[in-house]
UniProtKB/TrEMBL annotation:
Lineage, opening ranks: Bacteria, Pseudomonadati, Pseudomonadota, Alphaproteobacteria, Rhodobacterales
Any single GO BP term: D-galactonate catabolic process
UniProt-recorded Gene Ontology molecular function terms: 2-dehydro-3-deoxygalactonokinase activity
Signal sequence, start to end: none
UniProt cross-references to Pfam families, sorted A to Z: DGOK (PF05035)
InterPro entries found in the cross-reference section: DGOK, DGOK_C
Recorded coiled-coil stretches: none
Protein name (record): 2-dehydro-3-deoxygalactonokinase
């Protein structure tokens, strides 16, 4: 344990996942039971935002367990195959100007071929295995980055990451005023648009760039459904269709567990169902809380 305080302690503590500019922070009692959760944009200074969120969530907390960001401290990645968590592997970090609970960072997991790196998502995988310790198959962690993770005998064997969620929000940002839940399949037209785009790039992934181009056009001949919800659903379908084709070795013939929350949980499940691949599901937020508690207990 590289300078990190271990044990469960006798005070409340916090855990946070930082993924693609967002912070998801959980509050725990001394026994490791999750009590509260808070999410926010990381902003230009994750350290300042972490301190502010920690004060809001539980000012009594003395330790903040961190995954997905190391505060500028270089931590070597653990190579696959490996367990999602490594007993005793955590490092105390102190970003410049940080004024909050003691930060203890968990190392990422790396893969040499193809090159890839997984930080916060590994905590969610660990949480899924708390619920299903005998799970053998593929866990798909869905978010701004999705990770298809092959798990066997409690170890991560290999994984592959994708940017579908981030690209969706970049190409078709949700309108929080019109759709506060950011749901994708809000109308029958949006669902049909999703299915059509999914089928096209699932069978012809080389058409992805063209499909995304068409989805952003207005005033086409013949006219297409250019309502914001249908356009966003079309882009989601095209991106996920291409992702499923690339990730086919992971899900074909495998037991699949989705770790996802709205709005992406519904569309990934729908996409897999369309391929005849039945997938179980679990809240990504719940998996994060379980994984953080398991990580804290291992220190």
């Amino acid at each position: 344990m590289n300078g990190a305080a271990g044990g469960n302690g006798a005070t409340p503590w916090l855990g946070a996942l930082i993924e693609d500019g967002r912070i998801e922070m959980h509050g725990f009692d001394p026994a490791g039971r999750a009590l509260t959760c808070l999410s926010a944009q990381a902003g230009e200074s994750p350290a300042d935002q972490l301190a502010a969120m920690a004060a809001q969530l539980d000012p009594r907390a003395e330790v903040l367990l961190l995954a997905g960001w190391t505060g500028g401290t270089a931590l070597p990645a653990r190579p696959v195959p490996c367990t999602p968590l490594a007993e005793g592997e955590a490092t105390a970090v102190a970003p410049r100007g940080y004024a909050g609970p003691r930060l203890v960072a968990l190392p990422p997991i790396g893969q040499a071929s193809p090159p890839d790196l997984m930080g916060a998502a590994a905590i969610r995988v660990a949480g899924a295995l708390v619920m299903e310790p005998e799970f053998d198959g593929v866990i798909c962690v869905v978010g701004a980055r999705s990770f298809w993770v092959h798990v066997s005998a409690g170890e991560i064997v290999s994984f592959q990451g994708f940017l579908a969620g981030a690209l969706l929000d970049r190409l078709a940002p949700p309108d929080p005023l019109a759709n506060k839940d950011h749901a994708l399949l809000t109308t029958e037209g949006a669902a049909q648009a999703f299915d059509t785009a999914l089928a096209e790039t699932r069978s012809r992934p080389e058409r992805l760039a063209a499909a995304l181009h068409r989805a952003t056009l207005k005033g086409t001949i013949p006219p297409q459904d250019d309502q914001p919800d249908s356009r966003r659903a079309t882009i989601a379908g095209a991106l996920i269709g291409a992702e499923l084709t690339a990730a086919r070795p992971y899900w074909l013939g495998q037991r699949v567990l989705l770790l996802a929350d709205a709005p992406l949980a519904e569309v990934y499940k729908r996409a897999l169902d369309a391929q005849g691949a039945e997938a179980g599901s679990m809240s990504a937020q719940q998996a994060a809380a379980l994984g953080l508690a398991a990580a804290r207990a291992s220190l």
